[in-house]
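quick one: pyridoxine-5'-phosphate bound model?
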Amino acid sequence: MRLAVNIDHIATLRNARNEGHPDPVDAAILAEQSGAAGIVCHLREDRRHIKDNDLERLRETIQTKLDLEMAMTGEMQSIALRVKPDLVTLVPEKREELTTEGGFAIHTHFKRLTEFIKPLRDQEIGVSIFIEPEDDAIELAAEAGANLVELHTGPYSLCTGDEEKEYELQRIRTAARIAREAGLSVVAGHGLSILNIAPFRELHDIEEVSIGHAIISRAVLVGLPVAIQEILDRITR
Ligand code: PXP
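yep, here:
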């Protein structure tokens, strides 16, 4: 299983002083050197962490895979078509949320989604949709032309009891299998950390996990290479 590292919160820290450091591009380079298979950033409408210029510099620097998380807006589509990340992950976005709160409302946006994805795929940009681990969302993602789905692990990450945790894991396990059978690649993410990642090692239909906040906050204490290695030790054989 691969690990993609989300570096948004390096930018959050940088923006606290509005000076140039820490630089998310430096973090991306270090993350790649430490075993990350991809770098993820979320260019939000309000630019609260990653800025346009960060995205441009990340595109020039990243050697592995650049995954741009974004909302389904015309502005973001133009940016993606110009910057050409390797992958776009479509996420719902609300100004007032602290972080992405749930899967993309694929039923509501289905008609526009197909039209939105096509120009991206035509430019050979991979398209992933961040969805709840549910059968009908997977079917619609495949039908809309996505080549990947990212399963929302937020509810799993918030579970406290073992039974509850196993229930959420089973939803993720089943959804991952259905997605693979539908010809989609499968990523999982949100709220994953050193404390809850271990069972994912056995979820063989999931090719990659995408982790941000837990790695960056741990890195503040132990350094980015150590924080990344701790996760890799738990997801690779
Ligand atoms: N995947 C998606 C689609 C996200 O929106 C986020 C948060 O930016 C993540 C993964 C990473 O979540 P976390 O920061 O909780 O690891």
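The chain has a mean pLDDT of 95.
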